[in-house]
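Risk register update: the risk of archive-format incompatibility is retired. Evidence:
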Amino acid sequence: MGREHHARFPRTRARLSAATGAALLALLVTAFAALPAAAGGDGDRHRAVRAVRVHEQARERVDRLREADALPAALEEAEERRKAVRDDLWDLLRAGARESGDPVAVDPSGRAGHCPFGERSRAPERRSSAWTAPTRRYWLSAGYAAKGSRWARRHTGQDFAVDSGTPVYAVGSGVVRVTTCGDGFGNQVLVRHQDGYFTQYAHLSRIDVRRGQRVAAGQRLGLSGASGNVTGPHLHFEVRITPYLGSQVPPLPWLRRKAVRVSGAPALPWLPDRPRAGEGGRRPGPR
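Archived output:
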């Protein structure tokens, strides 16, 4: 009888499902909060990794509730829990970024670093979709979580191997939060999107937007290059929960959720320098 009742009244079923999911999520949030606050180093890194995992589980929970047309109160509660995890992660990583002198934290406008700014770009007149790939005529090279001597631990984004001077585009609409330079990422732009995630575009040769500027999907952010810690021109594309390194998530699955299909398979994690074709482009020079 109970099963028939739930099938007949999806709202009731969603309410019960929401209550169960909220209880499980509460356990995850409590587990994260109970982790000891380490004095920097690997302790903070492990806390950040755990927080990213909990946040993504909370985000998946919110998505499922939306798909199930759950009650607004259940959806709001799940979203508040997700934001609470994000805020804790934000505070943790911001403190470390400031202490280490990360330009994202200490010079987000790029003024102090005298970054190479070009003329401000304009939004494209026509947009075929709300989301797009970050560049064109690329080869996928180093993938997310790839191992290599150039990274302290694992690769934090997806590399798009392109010739220097190739236009780099915002993958979706949002607000430019960071335009800076001076570290291993070289000249970089970070855009915050309406869903709260940040996308990073690094190793640019020129920056064509300014902090605080609103951008549309497909709007040029700058030109690709080889600034920072690189062996050749390419675009490093990253998706983060916060503006700071340590909150990254796999970028290609994130793009797929936006209905963006990136052509070509990413290089295998243990073969970070092996390029793969994308969008029929010719193979650029060695990285």
